[in-house]
């Protein structure tokens, strides 16, 4: 692994972007990517809409892409933004890092921000693992996100019963014990496209804004992160199902609730599934309507265009991050 500091790649950490998000009442988008087309779409959508952005990979996405590719892709992302005409702040972030070793490898290879997700461990172990990462990361001016509370998995019921909501009374001592820069909390979201199973006409249950507000009062001005924030648009699901897919009983987080979160202490909103759905719907349609097509550019190209539209829409109409970079 080649050692490189993120500043050499033109990246920034999340400090300044979160300070602006907190002051101005918007949320910075954190879009996951697994390949070149997704990354190009995220950067194009954010540069065109004047939004700062966090580009993030999970440990498994990093493996899929190949670790040596990532610093080059990040540097190319910075160049692409300049080429479009607006040099937006870009942070490269490790999503759901599960060990000190992985976080360290990422820091050493050009990441500007890392998450250490020890939320499944005991409170004390979570503090210990997080602090170890913070101590190393801060020596390199890299920002760290941790998590308190556990997000629900795929739910059988409308109410997110398996979610262990963040306990507000634990937050202050966790921040003091770790020195972490931002905190992911559990207030009723979950990962993936199947967040709630709803009967026809039923609405998803509201997020626990009471928990968020309590945390905001206990640690005013501290940046909060919302995971599992995809909306799972019914039109994408309908297209996927129309063209041979099978995704029944899906539901995501309503945009209105995300707007409310973005205006609060939530400074970072994580979106992965919606990007996957937008691309998959387009690819299914093209392959189904053009059965003899086999040139990847003919379906990945239009899928990339759809993802650009999705990013611009979210930045402009949901997260309020559009137009913040001039
Ligand atoms: O929260 C997890 C992200 O959606 C990434 O998931 O492990 O499939 O890359 P992944
Ligand atoms: P979604 O599955 O709702 O897009 O959540 C993504 C996420 O939280 C990545 O960490
Ligand atoms: Zn997540």
3D structure, described in words:
The chain has helices at 15-24, 36-49, 59-65, 69-84, 100-108, 123-139, 168-178, 209-218, 234-242, 255-262, 273-289, 296-319; strands at 28-32, 53-58, 90-97, 113-116, 143-148, 182-185, 224-226, 266-271. The two termini are 36 Å apart. Helix content is 47%, strand content 13%. With 326 residues, the chain is an alpha/beta fold. The protein is globular and about 60 Å long. The chain has an eight-stranded parallel barrel, surrounded by ten helices. It binds glyceraldehyde-3-phosphate, 1,3-dihydroxyacetonephosphate and zinc ion. 1,3-dihydroxyacetonephosphate (13P) binds at residues 32, 95-96, 191-192, 227-230, 270-274. Zinc ion binds next to loops.
Low-confidence regions: 154-161
What does the largest sheet look like?
8 strands, parallel, barrel
Average per-residue pLDDT, rounded, comes to: 95
- Name the overall outline: globular
Termini separation comes to: 36 Å
Number of strands: 8
**Ions, cofactors, ligands: which are bound?**
glyceraldehyde-3-phosphate, 1,3-dihydroxyacetonephosphate, zinc ion
What strand line-up does the widest sheet have?
1-2-3-4-5-6-7-8
């Amino acid at each position: 692994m080649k050692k490189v500091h993120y500043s050499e790649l033109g990246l920034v950490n999340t400090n300044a972007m979160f300070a602006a998000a907190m002051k101005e009442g918007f949320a910075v988008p954190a879009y996951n990517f697994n390949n070149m087309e997704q990354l190009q779409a995220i950067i194009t959508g954010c540069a065109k809409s004047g939004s700062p952005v966090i580009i993030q990979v999970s440990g498994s996405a990093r493996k899929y892409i190949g670790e040596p590719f990532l610093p080059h892709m990040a540097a190319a992302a910075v160049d692409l933004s300049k080429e479009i005409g607006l040099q937006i702040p870009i942070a490269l972030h490790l999503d759901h890092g599960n060990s000190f070793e992985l976080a360290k490898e990422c820091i050493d290879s050009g990441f500007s921000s890392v998450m250490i997700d020890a939320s499944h461990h005991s409170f004390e172990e979570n503090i210990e693992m997080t602090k170890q990462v913070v101590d190393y990361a801060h020596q390199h001016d890299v920002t760290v996100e941790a998590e308190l509370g556990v997000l629900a998995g795929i739910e059988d019921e409308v109410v997110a019963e398996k979610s262990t909501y963040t306990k507000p009374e634990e937050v202050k001592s966790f921040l003091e014990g770790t020195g972490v820069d931002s905190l992911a909390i559990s207030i009723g979201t979950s990962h993936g496209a199947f967040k709630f199973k709803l009967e026809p006409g039923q609405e998803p249950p509201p997020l626990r804004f009471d928990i968020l507000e309590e945390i905001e009062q206990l640690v005013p001005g501290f940046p909060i992160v919302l995971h599992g924030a995809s909306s799972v648009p019914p039109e994408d699901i309908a297209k996927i199902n129309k063209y041979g897919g099978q995704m029944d009983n899906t539901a995501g987080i309503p945009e209105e609730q995300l707007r409310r979160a973005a205006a609060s202490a939530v400074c970072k909103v994580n979106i992965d599934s919606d990007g996957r759905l937008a691309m998959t719907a387009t690819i299914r349609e093209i392959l189904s309507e053009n059965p003899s097509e086999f040139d990847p550019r003919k379906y990945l190209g239009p899928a990339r265009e759809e993802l650009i539209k999705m990013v611009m829409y979210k930045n402009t109409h949901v997260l309020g991050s559009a137009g913040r970079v001039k």
